[in-house]
Amino acid sequence: MRISKYFSQQKIASRRETEKLMTQGKITVNGKVVTDLGRQINPETDVVKIVGVIDSKTTVAYYKPRNISSSKIFEEGTSVFDLLPQFSHLNTIGRLDKASEGLIILSDDGVLTAQLTSAEHTIENDTSLWFEEKLTHTPY
């Protein structure tokens, strides 16, 4: 198994992040620095470590107001990134419609993003709706 796949499966780092660490010489296998991106390991017998300091991740929970886009597409109007320019390097996890308000998560953590959005994981979310007009049943 490739090191990047192993780290991804173990929720240590995304495949791209692992490859970056490898090219920086920050990963060792059995005590030897590995820079070959295709290096195969046996998770049962090989000892794989990250050496040194790795970049920290940023995750922000933000309550998005109505009429603010959660997209980076300019044509959609004012976005959460216009309101929070210090976090413009982050990506949204999930999406809220422009007309909706609620919690939105911004992050540069690929592992967290996969855990929250992957079909393999069951992260429950709850949606509540309020109507300004009375709803009536209309048969088809």
Which tags fit this structure?
PsdUridine_synth_RsuA/RluB_CS, isomerase, rRNA pseudouridine synthase activity, elongated, 3-stranded antiparallel sheet, Alpha-Beta Plaits, 2 domains, RNA-binding S4 domain-containing protein, RNA binding, 4 helices, 20% helix, alpha+beta
Would you mind describing this structure in some detail?
It comes from candidate division WWE3 bacterium CG_4_10_14_0_2_um_filter_41_14. The chain is of the alpha+beta class and 140 residues long. The protein has two domains: 48 residues, Structural Genomics Hypothetical 15.5 Kd Protein In mrcA-pckA Intergenic Region, Chain A; 59 residues, Pseudouridine synthase I, catalytic domain, N-terminal subdomain (Alpha-Beta Plaits, 2-Layer Sandwich), CATH 3.30.70.580. It has four helices and six strands, in the order ααββββαββα. The strands form two sheets. A three-stranded antiparallel beta sheet has the order 2-1-3. The protein has a three-stranded antiparallel beta sheet with strand order 4-6-5, covered by helices on one side. Helix 1 packs across helix 2. The longest helix is centred in the first third of the chain and has 9 residues. The radius of gyration is 21 Å and the shape is elongated.
